[in-house]
Every structure is written in structure tokens, then in C-alpha cells.
Amino acid sequence: MKFSTKKRFIAGVVCPKCGLLDKLVTYSKDNVNYRECVVCSFKDEIRISSLPNEL
């Protein structure tokens, strides 16, 4: 899954550092996907390891 370089908000997600709702954005830089909090500057690489299992 590839995200754009333009930062986009992720609805309904709580920041793991500050605990605020709807403050995370996602973007891609150098073919690496990131999520970042616009309030506390928490930043984390999004790692998608495998395809979802079929039900």
C-alpha cells in the first residue's frame, strides 16, 4: 500500500503518544509510509507486512 506525499488525516484514530483523537496524518516519503501527530509530533513508520487473510 502506498500513500501520497500529500499529508492526509486519518479519521477515528487516537495518537498513541498524546491520546488525542483525529490528529494523525499519513504520508509517504522516499517510498516509506509514515503516520504523524500534528499536535505532539509523534512520528512512526507504517509497516504493512502481509496481505490480509481471506474470510
Description:
By secondary structure, the protein is mostly beta strands. It has a domain at 8-45. Helix content is 0%, strand content 31%. It is built from no helices and four strands. A four-stranded antiparallel sheet has the order 1-2-3-4, with no helix packed on it. The protein is globular, with a radius of gyration of 12 Å. 4% of the residues are buried. The mean pLDDT is 87. It comes from SAR92 clade bacterium. It holds the Pfam family DUF2387. InterPro entries: YheV (IPR012658).
Output mean pLDDT: 87
- How can the largest sheet be summarized? 4 strands, antiparallel
Tell me the number of helical segments per DSSP (H or I, 4 or more residues long).
Answer: 0
Strand coverage percent: 25-35%
Low-confidence stretches: none
Give the neighbour order of strands across the main sheet.
Answer: 1-2-3-4
H/E series, N to C?
Answer: EEEE
Number of strands: 4
Distance between the termini: 20 Å
- Which percent bin holds the helix content? under 10%
The gross shape turns out to be globular
Rg estimate, integer Å = 12 Å
Specify the structural class: mainly beta
What key phrases describe this protein's structure?
YheV; globular; mainly beta; YheV family putative metal-binding protein; 55 residues
